[in-house]
Amino acid sequence: MADTKERLPARVTMPLLTLITQQSLDEDYLHAAERRVARGGANPPPGHRGRRTAAVVAVVAVFGVLVTTAAVQTNRNADTVDAGRESLIEQILNQRADVAAQQVSLADLRDEIADLEDEQDRTDAAQQSVADANERLSVRTGGVAVRGPGVRITVDDPEQGEERIRKEDLFLLINGLWQAGAEAIALNGHRLSVVTSINNSDVAINVESSALLPPYTLQAIGDSGRLAADLLDTDTFERFDALQDRYGFRFDMDNEDSMVLPAARDKRLRNASVATTQSDRRAEEGTTP
């Protein structure tokens, strides 16, 4: 290894700055000698030669300083570039982590929204079910006016005899219509409900303190294709039919494509209240059995 190093040229083993300086000086001396020969071989004055040498040395020194400064600056720039690259990589990694976290949060929010939508659908379905039940209850109890197909029944006293239609006879037809599937019933234009008062009064029948005289007209909304037939099959109509044969009551029933029944009179409850069971009371009190 030592022999190999000795065989290498001096310009290979010499430091770079020394080599540059030496080569610059050699070239300067060469150019100076060539210029002397071109002028006739006369040597310049000693002072002039010293000034030239000093100038060359100064130029080489400045050049060396510049090279050294450039090398140091290049090294600093490399450090700055490396630091900037590492900072950029760190920012990219942080941004990727933030995006991943936001994607997870977005997925959770989507699941939460889907659950809320399902709950909203169930709530809407329950609300619609309650609304439908309330509508059916309002129709059945006479709370609202209704329109629809049904049957019209007219009953009257017999043409001869002293017997008269009484409320009990009308109850047989009214109960038969409920059994046959009627959704709403009116008597002489008075909507019947669970609190409607019907009483006998001499030759008339009072409905909510209004005296009605025969003929009596019952209007019932329901399936007009089956309501009349189903009424004839009820036991209450069989009992009315027996009274009709016995006393000669006049009876007529027709199907109607459309009829309108008014709402029942608003009658305030004075004595009735919602019954509370034992389990309801325990729930209100927060106790267990």
From TrEMBL:
Residues 279-289 have a biased composition (Basic and acidic residues). It comes from the Bacteria. One of its GO terms (cellular component) is plasma membrane. Keywords: Coiled coil. The keyword ATP-binding does not apply. Residues 99-136 form a coiled coil. InterPro entries: DUF881. Residues 270-289 are annotated as: Disordered. Belongs to the UPF0749 family. This is Uncharacterized conserved protein YlxW, UPF0749 family. The lineage of its organism: Bacteria, Bacillati, Actinomycetota, Actinomycetes, Propionibacteriales.
